[in-house]
Predict the 3D structure of the following.
Amino acid sequence: MAFIRHLETLVPEISYPQDLAGVILSSRSESDRTGRYIRKVYAESGIAQRHSVVPDFLQSESGPGLFIAEDGSPREPTTGERNDVYVREAKKLIPEIARNAVANCEGIEASDITHVITVSCTGFFNPGPDLLVIDALDLSPKVQRYHLGFMGCYAAFPALKMASQFCDLDESATVIVVCLELCSIHLQNKDDLDSIVANSVFADGAAAAIVSARSPAKGQRAYRINQFACNLAREGIEDMAWDIGDHGFNIVLSKYVARIIGAGIKGLIEEVFSGSELTPGDMARWAVHPGGRAILDKIETSLELTPEQIQASREILSAYGNMSSATVLFVLASILAEESTRDGDAVCAMAFGPGLTIETGVFNAVVA
């Protein structure tokens, strides 16, 4: 048996109101018609605010930046320039969230950690994020460490599965999982639909989970890990994808993704619970990765959920946008912190990514 003993979240200090971001990006379009469409997409996104490591678009700032040239005109930074920002900011954010996660996890010390798992799809460097965690917590160089890269929004689930398996095999195991995504450095100054949608939803953030086989301390809120499942909706293999270009990551995010997920999710959920004592009706809450408002709408309708059951996902979408792999941990943390969450409440979490991959996990709240 394994427990998520603590969930920690962190966002950059810089943030943009969604309406301001829509105005800025629409003003950069060469077409008035496209500019109006951009403002419409932003207004209907379900997002109020997003955080970023990029200060370029703050009205109080002046001078050149990652996306602004010396003369004030838009510029397309190279992939190398974008990755330089990723490395610089990762070296600040990863140590901070690792230290905070351990400091705020009652009953767990840094010396207890046996495994480090880091997750990111928005940048690369080596020695990498895993070593940043080792150094930040002054861990033994013998601690086992793993990095899951370029998987996308669902990657927190493989990381939690790995952590759970380590704990199943060794009751003394304690694992720290750190997800860091800096999506905003890959903004594209293009008027194609995929770029407009991606620019309107993606944001920056980090989340960490402490997973242990040891039961939570009295009074500590936690999750007991129940089960995981995954599947592929191959009909959407070309609707959510990305590759590395000379000017950042080229993202495909089709408007059909929400429709594909909505059409297939009920069958997948039935498979998840087949052979289990639990049923979808036993789920008190649903921690759905808020990839976008349309995805949440389709999930709510297809699974016949009440607005309350999916409320945390909508709140995280509104306050932060889509922070790729870190986002579902924000949702789980939000549900666990709510006073209405009771001991034993079952929560079904899910996230989606390229493939089209659908990952799910069932967790039981521990509120002693």
The domain at 221-367 is CATH 3.40.47.10 (Peroxisomal Thiolase; Chain A, domain 1).
